[in-house]
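ok new one. same drill as before - structure tokens go in, u give me an amino acid for every spot. 264 of them this time. try not to just spam alanines like last time pls lmao
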């Protein structure tokens, strides 16, 4: 098995991906509940990030600035376009996300790949745009059920990493965060077993080491995503190569999301 630096050198992180959910009002309501709890019992050893829809992004940033100056919760966007400005109706650039106060941005989520025809090439362009605009990219990879059943997991993941992270300045690569999200486990209630997840995470480190450098492989945080819940989070998150979670459904209820954070 690939031996890496002690896990505690990579700062753990839990990201709540709210997807196309929440109004400004319900977003703030959810944040209030999260902050109430995190203020009484701060989780200093873990980075907590929420990814609201674009329409609530700035309201969320403002609310957190006024109510939690100590950065208990940070903010991610769910996507960006790769150009910084111009005639691209409907698109949101990295520059705009910085302006709205985001620090992170999710890129290449399987729902973007499935419904919006994103490819490894667009992932690479978006990752470059994020870094150019000083946003931390959270780049998603993961195989479909058909690919897993055809024993193609390693081939698919290696391709997504090599092509999705192509043309990135090597000095900036360690800042990129990866999220392994098996497509068959997203929103389905099916979770990869801790062993299945750990096996792919260890494989990802091997790809990073061979394709880039051992240092990048050691430093890069790799999150797991796909039906993470309070009940299954502890076993997943204590695996050697799993540095946190990207949580969809369970991030929409404060008690469920807090349960995952407390379980780490
Ligand atoms: P889920 O979504 O937790 O609802 O499966 C995870 C994700 O899509 O990031």
């Amino acid at each position: 098995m690939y031996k890496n630096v002690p896990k505690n050198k990579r700062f753990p992180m839990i990201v709540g991906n709210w997807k196309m959910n929440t109004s400004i009002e319900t977003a703030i309501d959810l944040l209030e509940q999260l902050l109430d709890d995190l203020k009484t019992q701060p989780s200093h050893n873990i980075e907590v990030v929420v990814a609201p829809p674009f329409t609530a992004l700035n309201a969320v940033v403002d609310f957190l600035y006024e109510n939690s100056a100590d950065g208990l919760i940070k903010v991610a966007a769910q996507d960006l376009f790769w150009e910084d400005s111009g005639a691209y109706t409907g698109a949101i650039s990295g520059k705009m996300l910085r302006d709205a106060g985001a620090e992170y941005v999710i890129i290449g989520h399987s729902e973007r790949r499935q419904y919006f025809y994103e490819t490894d090439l667009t992932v690479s362009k978006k990752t470059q745009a994020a870094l150019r605009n000083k946003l931390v990219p959270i780049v998603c990879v993961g195989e479909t059920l058909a690919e897993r059943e055809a024993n193609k997991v390693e081939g698919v993941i290696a391709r997504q990493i090599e092509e999705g992270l192509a043309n990135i300045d090597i000095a900036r690569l360690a800042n990129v965060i990866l999220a392994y999200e098996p497509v068959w486990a997203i929103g389905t209630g099916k979770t990869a077993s801790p062993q299945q997840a750990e096996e792919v995470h260890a494989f990802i480190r091997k790809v990073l080491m061979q394709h880039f450098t051992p240092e990048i492989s050691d430093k890069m945080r790799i999150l797991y995503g796909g039906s993470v819940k309070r009940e299954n989070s502890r076993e997943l998150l204590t695996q050697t190569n799993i540095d946190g979670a990207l949580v969809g459904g369970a991030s929409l209820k404060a008690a469920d999301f807090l349960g995952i954070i407390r379980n780490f």
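The beta strands are 13-17, 47-51, 74-77, 104-107, 136-141, 177-180, 222-225, 244-247. and btw Residues 17, 181, 186-187, 225-228, 246-250 surround 2-phosphoglycolic acid (CB under 6 Å).
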